[in-house]
Each structure stands twice: as structure tokens, then as C-alpha cells.
Amino acid sequence: MDAQRSEPTVTRTDPIVAGARSQALGDLLRRSAARVPDKTALIWRERRESYAELDAAVNRVAHSLADRGVAQGDRIAIYSHNCREFVLLYFALARLGAISVPINFMLTADEVAFILAHSGAVGFIAEDGLATEAAAAVKQLSDSEIRLLGWIGLAGLPAAAGWEDVSAWEHHPDASAPAVFVADDDPIQIMYTSGTESRPKGAVLSSRALIAQYSSVVVDGRMSADDIDVHALPLYHCAQLHCFLTPDLWLGATSILLPGPDPATVLRTIETQRATKLFCPPTVWVSLLRHPGFDSYDLSSLRKGYYGASIMPVEVLHELAERLPGVGLTNFYGQTELSPLATVLAPEDQLTKPGSAGRPALNVETRVVDDDDNPVAVGVVGEIVHRSPQAMLGYWNDPDKTAEAFRNGWFHSGDLGVLDADGYLSVVDRKKDMIKTGGENVASREVEEVLYEHPDVSEAAVVGIPHARWIEAVAAIVVARTGTAPDAAAVIAHCKQRLAGYKVPKYVTFVEALPKNPSGKILKRELRTQHADLAAAD
Fold it and tell me: Which of 253, 419, 499, 506 has a beta carbon 3.0–4.6 Å from 227's, enabling a disulfide?
């Protein structure tokens, strides 16, 4: 007699089973609180908070939000510098299945209004120091559906009329976890891209994508529960929030939250808190090295250093190795749409593969392809594409851009890169940062590396500007090191010794500072606009 085939008795949609298998963003902090309830989770200003205390505070805020009508799927925007309230709101919204929408605190009222309208936010929570911009943004929304206005009193200012002080939300009597089931691929956050090139797009992230990302950063970043991490870069950006803060809270590590990357404050915090771990983009690492008191601080506790947003100039890598010999540096390369990690350059590879973005992270597949999406040979430049559970669900309310980004089953990064024989990726440029001068392609990144080798150059950015003859001309925008006075001719002569003639900047101009967003990315869009007339006299 043939054995009778048995049918499965449980389906994937069984709500009881689904609840027992829950692995959503809001679950992570609760599990850490159960494992290490008394361990310090968060240090903010003078306050040290255990995992049990932080978990209970998150639950109270979640119930307060629910009492105010916030429900699963609602979009709630947060417009604030780093603070404890940001962390509470972020996890509280996740536990309700609401969608948090962090907003860059450097944006103007017009730009904030765009994100509020585009995301369809029903709640807007803003820091008191940003009250003017916040109020102006809300005023622009003629058909606003915003029904909740929250006030974060970082500066101690009383809540404006119509805004509610969020500090009261933490005193809700119910500290139990909200009874809301959030599925793995429910939208949990909309992260708006930095908009360095165009209007920001809303990348929709799910718990599944984020937790796959946390697994990658923990393994490839060699993170552990023993870490004491300084979080100085903005939490509205996915790098600090999703590569460091949330993985730390998942692991049970200790997080020190700073309002921003002031060099003296960062260095003092490492010394006084005996911090072991720090992430900064290259521009901020440079600002730490240039701080006049750098060598007077005891930084011996620091063991793990991370950078991202752009490749570290090779000269700065050598300086960091010399002045922080006990720190293993790791490069995280990626973008918002991948939650954000794509590739990793390990500490042991920093000086053997200088300038490289490393190899694909644990949960990522990476290729370099031509314009027809065919893989290119080793050493050939093409577009970098990825396949990963870390990828976003898509762009909010933009199916056309989503389809274009995911064509042929791979996420198209918009970055140009090249693989070497060992499988290490080098990012050549953004597609839009490739300068085409006189019919020749010039990667701004290559020219910038040469500029950083000049002893009098502190920072540099290379862009293409309009030119009557060359269509585009290579222009270098330079910040000189303190106490030096290089001239354009000397910088150009330096480049001529190291670059083909068509790659040498035709124009060099000096500025006090380069425009950047809070995550440390240089805003080349602004540089192109500001210096568009450099070639006008020609």
C-alpha cells in the first residue's frame, strides 16, 4: 500500500504561528531587555538608562501615541537632532506598526513640507530649536491631514500653540508591550534619500530588510555586546541609525548619544566614557585629526573605527593608522535603499586595498554590469548592482522609479565601480559625478585622491562645470590646511605630475568650507551651481 501523503496542518498565514514567530523591529529592544535588563543601554547627557528602563519607556510612549490615534501604517515624521526622544519615538512607532519618517534637520521649510506631503504624514514631531521651520512647513500644507503635532523640548522652550510636549507621553500608566502584530515585510520606515543630486526619494524599509542588514553589520563589522559606541552622526540618516545604534541595542551593547559630531565633544566622550567604537564619515575623521587638542586626549580605549559616505583618502588612512594605531578601521559602503550596507573593507585590508569599498556583505550579492546589465570583466568600469533581502520594498508612491531601480531583478545603485581579480570593489564615481570633458571621461574621485596628496590641501571636491569648448571642464574646490596659503598654479602643477592632462583641473578655487549634509556627504550639486561661472571668462 502506498504511504498516504500528509497535508500540512499549519499555513504561513496562521495568525497564532505568525505571532509566535514575530521578528519585527519593535521586538529587538524587548529581547535585549529580557536578556540584560540591568545593563546600560543608552547614555544621553547626564542620564544613564538600563535596557529594562528604556524598554518600559518605549512602551509608555507607544501607548500614548495609540491614545492619540496613531495606528498601524500611519506615517509619523520626526524632525530633530539626536536625542533620547528620537530613540523612544523610533521604537514606539515600530511597536505600533506605524511608519517613522525621519527628516534631515538641515532642510528648509519648503523641503520639509515636500516630505510631509509626499509621505502623507499624519503626525509631525519636531524639536523646539527647529520650530520656525516646522511651523512654516506645516503652514504650506494646504490640505494637510496632519492631526498630531509633537514638540521635543531639547532647548527647554515651552510648546507652541497647537503642539503637544512629547515628554508627557512617557508617563502613560501602561508599560506593557502593545498588542500589535507587525509582519516581516510590513513597511516600518520611509528613509528619504539625501537629495545630493535631485529631489529626495522615499525608500520604504521593512523589518525583514533591516534585520538582514543588522546581521550583516554585526558579522562583517565584528560588533559585540561589549561595545561602548559613540553615536555622533545624525540618526535621521540610515548609517548611524541602522549600521550602529539599532544593531548595538539588538546586541545589548552600550550607546552614547551625542547631538552632533563636534570634534572636541567626540574626543572628550571617548576619553571619559572609555568608548571602544566610533563611526564617522571621512570628513569628520579629518576634523578629529585636525583638532588642535587631538594628541592630548586619551583615546586608548578606542578599538573599532568605521567610515562611510565616501571612500577615505589614502593619505588620511595612513595618518589614522599612525595616530590611532590601536584602532581597526572598517569601511561600510552602501546606500539608503539597501538599509544601507552593501560592501565591507575589513581592517586588515585598509592599507593593502586602499581606496577600495571591499567585498559584498554577508547578506548581499554584488555585480558590476554594463548598460545592458551584463556583467563586465575584471578591471572594467560599470554600474554597481546588488541583490539582497536588505533591499527596500520600493520608493514610496513612485512605481516607475522603483521599476527602473530594480530592473532585471537587481537593485541598480547609480554608482560606477570596478572589481579587481580578488573580488574587491572600487567605487569610481556616481554616474552623475562622472565628468565628460572634450569627449573623455574623468572620475572626480581619482582627481580628488591626487589633490589630497598635496600637503596644503585639507579637503577637496572635484566637479564638472560648463565650458564653451570642452562642454564640461574639471574644476577643483579646495579647502586649505590651516596656516597654509597654496595657490591654484601650485595645485595644478601637483596634479600634472600625477594625472593625464585631460584629468588635471582647469580651474582651482579655494573656499573656507565645503557644503555638506549632516551625514558628511559633500553636496556636489551645490558646488556645481555655486561655481558654474568659473569658466565664463574663457
Answer: 253
